[in-house]
Amino acid sequence: MRASSVKRRRSDLPDFVQTDIDIDALARSIFARYAGPQPIVVEGTAAHATFFNIDYCPDFRVMTMAGALALRVNQHAVAGMDGLAPLRVTIREIMLAALLHDLGKQHEDCAPFIELLRGTDLRADASEGAAQRAEYLLNIVRDVHCRKGPCMIDRLRDAGRPELNNPFIVTVARRHGEDYATNYSERLGCWWAREINIVTIADDYDAVTSIGPERAYRSERTNTADAVRMLRAGAARGRYEPHLTEIFVNDVIGGSAIAGC
Fold first, then answer.
1. How many CB atoms lie within 10 A of CB 126?
2. Are 175 and 149 in contact (CB under 8 A)?
3. pLDDT at residue 5 above 50?
4. In angstroms, rounded to a whole number, what is the distance separating the alpha carbons of residues 90 and 231?
5. Is the per-residue pLDDT at 208 higher than 50?
6. Residue 237 has pLDDT above 80, yes or no
7. Measured between alpha carbons, how far is 195 from 74 in angstroms, rounded to an integer?
8. Which of 33, 144, 154, 189 is 20 to 30 A distant from 175 in Cα terms?
9. How does DSSP classify residue 256?
């Protein structure tokens, strides 16, 4: 793996800001470490759990897109484009956080609401009532899984994952559902607002453009052009950081796929 870098403020690692890295290879490497049965510790008791389906894993897609966006942000920053500063965490840390960001959905407190949500099948019932029930349950799942995500990460960490002893990882799990404007605000300002938003952009895009077992509450897949309009509308109202949004749209998704948006 080649890495061109500049030294980042507050870090003594010479390769902290990476601008030349094989994102796909890094994604496969990270995923291989966390796929399959994993040792965990639950209330002091050793156990095992499987968090990711090797054959179908939306979190892998989110991790890969988040890594690609992080790489392009660093490239823009080093080139002096858009007035961007380099990221405050490494690309690997962003990708690991992206892989684990939804782990709270597998917490026992969240499971009943996930099952109820799967039972609210909008493909079979497109009524207004079904949509309202789905949105109500979605809001519960969003709240519970963001609060329980750090707990699930702790269970992995306590079983021997030292890389998870990192406040950024649990902060993404807890705050990725929040708007950029909220994380960046003076009252609730977060040091990693941009870095968290990278994961949020990738996650939201994947959520509306894919349908699979974890998307049973969605009636249909959103096409790329509509997803781009959604992202730009979100940037306008403060959910996404505008520069990150445009880099994702133009450099990660690819301009040819969104002509006319």
1. 11
2. no
3. no
4. 24
5. yes
6. yes
7. 11
8. 33
9. G
Structure token digits, residue 169: 């990882």
**Cβ 74 vs Cβ 18: under 8 Å:** yes
Beta pairing partners, 5? 18
Smallest CA-to-CA distance from 248 within 58, 70, 7 is with: 70
Locate 111 and state its tokens.
């499971």
Contacts (Cβ under 8 Å, ≥6 apart) of 56: 212, 213
Furthest-apart CA pair in the chain: how many Å?
Answer: 57
- Give the Cα separation of 44 and 159 in Å (integer): 10
State residue 75's pLDDT score: 95
Q: State the Cα–Cα distance between residues 255 and 261, nearest whole angstrom.
A: 9
Lookup: tokens for 49: 């759990």
Cα separation, 231 vs 227, in Å, equals: 6
What tens digit of pLDDT does each residue of 132-179 get? 777 777 778 788 888 999 999 999 999 999 999 999 999 999 999 999
Phi and psi dihedrals of 37, rounded to 5? -60, 135
Helices marked H in the chain: 23-34, 58-78, 91-100, 111-119, 128-158, 167-175, 180-184, 193-209, 224-237, 242-247
Tokens for 78, please give them: 């080093």
Residue 212 has pLDDT above 70, yes or no: no
Q: Which domains does the chain have, with CATH numbers?
A: 5-256 (1.10.3210)
231 vs 121, 206, 242, CA distance in Å?
25, 11, 9
* pLDDT, mean over the chain: 84
φ/ψ of 75, rounded to 5, equals -65, -45
Mean pLDDT lowest among 1-5, 105-109, 175-179, 225-229: 1-5
Q: Which helix (H) or strand (E) holds 50?
A: strand 45-50
